[in-house]
Amino acid sequence: MYRYLLPYFCLLLFACEREQAGPAIDPYTFVSPEHFPPVAYDFDRNPVTEDGFKLGKRLFEDSRLSRDGSVSCSSCHQQVTAFADPQHRLSVGVEDRVGVRNAPGLFNLAFRSEYMWDGGVVHLDFAGVPAIESEVELDNSLAVIVDRLRADATYPEAFRRAFGTDTVTSGLMLQALSQYQAMLMSDRSKYDDVITGRNGAAFSATEAQGEAIFVDRCAGCHAGPLQTDNSYRNNGLDERNVADFGRETITHNPADRGKFRVPSLRNIARTPPYMHDGRLASLDAVLEHYAEGIRHSPTLDPRLEEPIRLTEQERTALIAFLETLTDWEFLADPRF
Amino acid sequence: MNSSFPYLFIFLSLLLLTACDDDVITPATGDTGTVEIEFENVFGPQTNQRSFGLGDTTDTEFPYANALDQPYRVTYLKYYVSEIVLEGPNGERYEEPIDVTATSARGFHLVDATRPESMVFDLADVPSGTYNSMSFTLGVDSTHVLEGAAGGDLDPVDSGMFWSWNAGYVAFKFEGQSPDSPGGAHGNSLVPGTPNGMVFHLGGWKDIEGTVLRNNNQRVTIDFLDRATVNDNQSPTIHLEFDVNSIFDGPGGTIDFGQSNVNMHSPVDATPLIRNATAGFRYDHIHQ
């Protein structure tokens, strides 16, 4: 007769379980690659959903976020170039106003805790706000955008599907943008395949030689699977560093003058021009800078006191390695 | 039939019914009450205080004067009160719950001189007892900046208290005019051409060595001269005052409008003013 109890025992077992996704991974679920460091973004506060992601993508591409409806986030951040600016040395905002910095690529953002070339933003949710408010970018305010979205024929319904409320607020808008941007994961390059042993991938002899040079001369700053140590450094672009104080803009500390975030080198072959102001047009020009172009100043990074001089053959090998960091699946992912 | 079967059946059914309950502690009636907190901005020391009101850049009067007898008027005044704690002589303790989401910010109160309704708010479910002190943070703690997008009183759209390029919340904003100020300051209520402007946007929520970044969020503790009795029948109002003039004279030093009329983006320079402001909060009375 105890068999009648069996269903109860079974029910008890499952009474507290949440619904689990099936074996197929939902393409709109954030998945942290095993070879990456711990995630910084708190997805418990803002779990990614398909509706939230799609709302975020729509906002990212909507030029009504700018004051005069002329530019969107995606004007300067396009997928084909790993969400960097495909054509401008410096970003171009409303009324063709020219910015002061080059729009960097956007990927693996959930693993960072500081954003912008100077690290002034400390949370992914707030990363879009300086661009929205900058007079040389979107030149708008959150308040105006929220009003526009509330008055729109379809946005409130999109917010309701994503967040369960059709009352558009700045917080929900920023969370939707974060869902989209956090999902911009670049972890499927040849480099990833090699270091994880996926797909039987292996570096060619040239790429392997390039990797050895990279580990020796570059990986001190462009460190780990994310290809950056997330520090701020002066890489010797200028003697006076007065055009842009960089990290000093945030800290007001002269010791930070001319220091900028060490960018990830993922997708680097796809994101010219290079440096915070886009002054170097090619990877060759970058290697030439590190060989012969270092300018000394009090805040120059000590690692660059000694120039990185490579033979032509070594440069070719290093660039071959850097090209293994291009994530073609990311660049062509139809979700983005 | 085994006689224990029905008991086991009932037991398992009960277990099933309660299996997913969170541990919600519902106090019995009489265990808690509501406390109303009221902030009032005033001018001057308690022994010689005047009522306070915001002015406008079109005004001709400068109704107030600082410790150096420099006249001024105030055109904008807002500050964050958060992480409120009430304590009593018998070990009573109440911490206002904090809960920040993209659409709400429980436990954060933006006191805005232009909105009387922002100056009065309730603390719910305060345990019964007597209370004789209250403390709060003047500003928004780093934990809550790092939680990301927020609503309620932390929504940047409505608050006017968020720094975007160097992200974080401003703790305290004062804007006004004084004939002794050289002007040039602009902010939420002043434009660059406004004569004699003064703008003090006091922020900073993290200390970073060797920088101007300081955690300026100060803890304010106010002892009550009376006691507030809380139970299900008694919902006292605790009336607190903020002496606006305190910003310019106090433990942080004396502010000369001729020398200092702008402080917007440098937390290290904001520290003296915010220390002064912290000392400007005081007890007034309790409506029992």
UniProtKB/TrEMBL annotation, chain A:
Cited InterPro entries:
Cyt_c-like_dom, Cyt_c-like_dom_sf, Cytochrome_c_Peroxidase/MauG, Di-haem_cyt_c_peroxidsae, MauG/Cytc_peroxidase
Q: Which residues form the Cytochrome c domain?
A: 205-326
What would be an example GO MF term here? metal ion binding
Chain sites annotated for binding heme c 2: 218, 221-222
Post-translational modification here is noted as: Binds 2 heme groups per subunit.
Q: Which residues cross the membrane?
A: none
Q: Which is a Pfam family this sequence falls into?
A: CCP_MauG
Q: Which UniProt keywords apply?
A: Heme, Iron, Metal-binding, Oxidoreductase, Periplasm, Peroxidase, Signal
Keyword Oxidoreductase present in the record's keywords: the answer is: yes
Provide the binding site for heme c 1.
73, 76-77
Q: State how the cofactor is bound.
A: Binds 2 heme groups.
Major place of localization? periplasm
Cofactor(s) in the UniProt record: heme
The reply on keyword DNA-binding is no
Protein name from the UniProt record? Cytochrome c peroxidase
Q: Which organism is it from?
A: Neolewinella xylanilytica
What high-level taxonomic lineage is stated for the organism?
Bacteria, Pseudomonadati, Bacteroidota, Saprospiria, Saprospirales
TrEMBL record, chain B:
Q: Name one Pfam family in it.
A: MbnP
The chain positions of domain Copper-binding protein MbnP-like read 32-261
Tell me which UniProt keywords the record has, alphabetically.
Answer: Signal
- Signal sequence span is 1-21
Q: What is this protein called?
A: Copper-binding protein MbnP-like domain-containing protein
